[in-house]
Amino acid sequence: MGAYILRRLALIIPTLIGIMIINFTLVQFVPGGPIDQIIARMEGQGDVFGGFAGSGSDALLDAPGGFGGQSNVGAHGLPPEFIAQLERQFGFDKPPLERFLDMMWNYIRLDFGQSYFRSVSVVDLVLEKMPVSITLGLWSTLIAYLVSIPLGIRKAVRDGTRFDTWTSGTIIAAYAIPGFLFAILLLVLFAGGSYWRIFPLRGLTSDNWQDLTLMGKILDYLWHITLPVLASTISAFATLTLLTKNSFLDEIKKQYVITARAKGLTERRVLYRHVFRNAMLIVIAGFPAVFVSVFFGGSLIIETIFSLDGLGRLGFEAAVARDYPVVFGTLFVFSLIGLVVGILSDLMYVWIDPRIDFETRET
């Protein structure tokens, strides 16, 4: 097992480099880079940085070493010297290959640079937005698994009964509802939209959160996250429940289950001592993808609807504004985390079923 883990760890490096090369190359062909964004704003063609609360290109122009001294340039046409200064400031006076190598060397040293337009380090930005994404990702994944696995087992045991039929209809209907539409429905019904004002409309905590007791803080936090977590979890039940059910049905029909029952073992012991270990392997295989997608990429619409400032909105706004340090820094970190989580899922395979031997498997 140790040799297998070492091989997987060694594969992380070329995989990560490949991801960065592909995305860096694609960016070279995307029009409207950060320099174009600033020039367009200075020429009065709009502010693409308005989505950044409390910041914008003004912060860059007025920052030390920035471009505040050129703010009186005429509205039509900019001097070539000023554009050259912009290119030097952003590093675009270097060839693409040199910029990529410099970027990767900095990332290896865990130096992810500063946002172009916020004068804040990428690490600080990510840490600032992390609580929202942790809340949505962790609670959504946890609730989905805690509900779907027991429900899937129950459906497998009672396959073809009325319980199986109506639960299947319910979860498939839930799966068909878009998350953003369900989020709007929750707001209208329970957040003061048109009916009841039971839950707050925005944020993770109340304004007086610091003044609350420990129990008050916990209850306030749970009060705020109820609707966003429900909206981000609704579509996960169907896939996990049906996957669990089908996995158990496949295992229940196998000979070793018939033998265990013939020996007089109780149904509960057969299900949870013998069938569970084998049937859950395929469910666990999907855990990294579920967690990483919800945690890092699937919360943009939910964050927008519930006014939550998390990693989803950070990534979207950085991509729109061509804030490349934020885009590539978060891409590097999240890709690395996703690859490591994939290795952890293999370790969970072995933990659940020690009969699995990855040493005999080619990577």
From TrEMBL:
It comes from the Bacteria. It holds the Pfam family BPD_transp_1. Keywords: Cell membrane, Membrane, Transmembrane, Transmembrane helix, Transport. It comes from Halodurantibacterium flavum. Residues 130-349 form the ABC transmembrane type-1 domain. It is a multi-pass membrane protein. It is found in: Cell membrane. InterPro entries: MetI-like, MetI-like_sf. Signal peptide: none annotated. Coiled coil: none annotated. The chain crosses the membrane at residues 9-30, 130-151, 172-196, 221-244, 279-306, 326-352. Belongs to the binding-protein-dependent transport system permease family. PANTHER family: INNER MEMBRANE ABC TRANSPORTER, INNER MEMBRANE ABC TRANSPORTER PERMEASE PROTEIN YEJB. This is Microcin C ABC transporter permease YejB.
